[in-house]
Amino acid sequence: MFVRVYDKPNSRYYKSIVYGTIGVGWFLQYIVLNPLENCFELVEYLDKGIKPAQPLVETIQRNNDDFKVYENTLLLKYKDYCKKKGKSMDINRLCGYFDVCENFEFIADIIENKSVSAVKYSIQLRQLSDNEEWKYIQTQEDANEFMKLFAGFHDSTLDKLIYNEEHGYTSVTSIFDNSGWYGVVELCFEGLLEFNIRPAKENYDRYIYEATMLVDNETIFWADGYMKNEDLAYNGSYIKAMNLKWRKIG
Q1: What is the pLDDT confidence band of residue 87, given thresholds at 50, 70 and 90?
Q2: SS3 category, 233
Q3: Cα–Cα distance between 100 and 122 in angstroms, integer?
Q4: Structure pTM?
Q5: Who's near 95: CB < 8 A, 6+ residues apart?
Q6: Which residue spans within the chain are E strands per DSSP?
Q7: Which of 81, 192, 223, 225 has the CB geometry, 3.0–4.6 Å to 238, for a possible disulfide?
Q8: Which of 21, 128, 18, 1 is nearest to 71 (CA)?
């Protein structure tokens, strides 16, 4: 799983692969890696201090095929460890990577302290499973480099859009043709926040002459017109998402 986490005490966001989860529903907590502090953190799924409760963890990619689920009898070894060490045993479901869930000392530590240095335990640091297939736009510098490569979308056309919505996951995959400058690229916006598409009018051509790509607060804003700042009132096509990745396909 890949998520965006709201660091409420510092009023900022960061992105992380999920290393494990504890509990379910209202009591769900995520084990994530805070790259700003280089530590693992145990983060509540919901901010219960406001009404209605709002998620502190938002899903970008939901793939957790490598996770192992520990419930009932599978938790007995962990609870026996806690009993011997005098640690809290108040846990009914643990889910995550094998090396994380089997590291009882780490699990007990992060439950007790909520934050653990990334170098304290031998937890394998994960990479996104598709980072060899896609290039990720993570910073404004990444966005600027792509815009330079793709000639700022000048003379490009939006040829195809595929919208995908599943439980806890939304994405838009778009294909842009800029053969006169670079070629054909596929852009995948994940964790959609805003989505507005306006087709060309009858008496206009369909070419894009300039575009915008802005990275701010762990979000990506793209529009088919130039602007210095994000504008959700823009009278054109725009997409805002928590993640953007791209690849050349032609």
Answers
A1: confident
A2: coil
A3: 9
A4: 0.92
A5: 20, 21, 22, 64, 67, 68, 69, 70, 101
A6: 2-7, 12-22, 29-34, 39-44, 46-47, 54-55, 57-61, 68-71, 93-96, 115-117, 135-136, 157-166, 169-178, 183-196, 212-216, 219-223, 238-248
A7: 223
A8: 21
Structure tokens at 145: 């480099």
Peptide bond into 52 cis (omega under 30): yes
Distance CA 240, CA 71 (A): 38
Residue range 83-110: average pLDDT? Answer: 92
Name the token pair of 89.
Answer: 């045993």
Any alpha helices (H) in 6-88, and if so which ranges? 76-85
Residue with the two structure tokens 């995550």: 96
Q: Name which residue leads in pLDDT, 89 or 166.
A: 166
Q: What distance in Å separates the CA atoms of residue 81 and residue 78, rounded to the nearest whole number?
A: 5
So what's the pLDDT on residue 138? 95
